[in-house]
Design brief:
It is a single chain. Helix content is about 25%, strand content about 20%. The protein has helices at about 50-60, 70-80, 85-105, 135-140, 185-195, and strands spanning about 5-10, 25-30, 45, 65, 110-120, 125-130, 145-155, 155-160, 180-185. Strands 1, 2, 3, 4, 5, 6, 7, 8 and 9 form a nine-stranded mixed sheet that branches. A hairpin with a 2-residue loop joins strand 7 and strand 8. Helix 1 packs parallel to helix 3 (about 85-105).
Length: about 240
């Protein structure tokens, strides 16, 4: 079983920026907007649940990041806004659920990070943002994850909250994180997860070294003055 990790937070609080230090992760950019930092990362822009499931099953990378995960629902909702009836909500919810459930069938060393917007419910609790009541009332999205982190911003410093505050859905396994707040760096989060479960985090790609030129043979100044052994012909050309 692969490891799904949910990262929730309001727009602009550091979700996408947290992936800045990855060098070999597979990135699915659901909405297709530019990443908020200078990078040369290769991303795939897809908002179709079935195609994302296919990508997850074929992915070679040990770490896959799905950025703007909530737009799987939003994009489909807007495309089908003129359709009447509730069947479309059921279909959208099933596709969303199936993407998360796919991770359960992946190899145990695979980690998939779902980055999603958050919202407050009627009681003021923070949760993953969804559309319709099916996912909230029948599924409970956070219940599909063992690890749910939330972004926090304090005095222009960006953090992940690792433990529940009593008014959110944040959670992590006991003793995985010793601090309630950690820097918003998913590479460090991934190291903590790998250490906890005994996995090997992905190593950065090795730089190809150019072959070194063979050293030039040094000439011995005394060689020209050396006497040849007796009996050897030293005639030049």
């Amino acid at each position: 079983m692969g490891i799904p990790i949910l990262i929730i937070g309001e727009s602009g609080t550091g979700k996408s920026t947290s992936i800045r230090n990855f060098t070999n992760a597979g990135i699915i950019n659901v909405y297709g907007k530019p990443l908020p930092f200078k990078n040369t990362m290769k991303t795939v822009s897809i908002d179709d649940c079935n195609k994302i499931i296919t990508l997850l099953n074929k992915a070679e990378a040990d770490v896959i990041i799905i950025d703007d995960f909530q737009y799987l629902l939003v994009n489909q909702f807007m495309k089908r806004a003129m359709e009447k009836g509730y069947d479309k909500f059921t279909e959208m919810a099933k596709g969303y659920y199936d993407v998360i459930d796919t991770v359960r069938k992946m190899p145990a060393h695979k980690r998939v990070y779902f980055l999603s917007h958050s919202e407050r419910d009627n009681l003021g609790n923070v949760k993953a943002k969804t559309i319709g009541k099916l996912l909230d009332e029948k599924v409970t999205v956070e219940g599909l994850f063992t690890i749910v982190l939330k972004t926090c911003v304090t005095e222009n410093n960006y953090y992940f909250q690792t433990h529940n505050s009593g008014q959110d859905t944040v959670k992590s396994p006991m003793d995985m994180f010793s601090e309630d707040f950690i820097p918003n760096d998913l590479v460090e989060v991934d190291k903590a997860i790998c250490g906890y479960y005994g996995l090997t985090p992905p190593a950065p790609p090795k730089k190809e070294e150019k072959p070194k030129a063979p050293p030039k043979t040094a000439k011995d100044p005394a060689a020209n003055n050396a006497q040849a052994p007796a009996g050897n012909d030293q005639g030049g050309v």
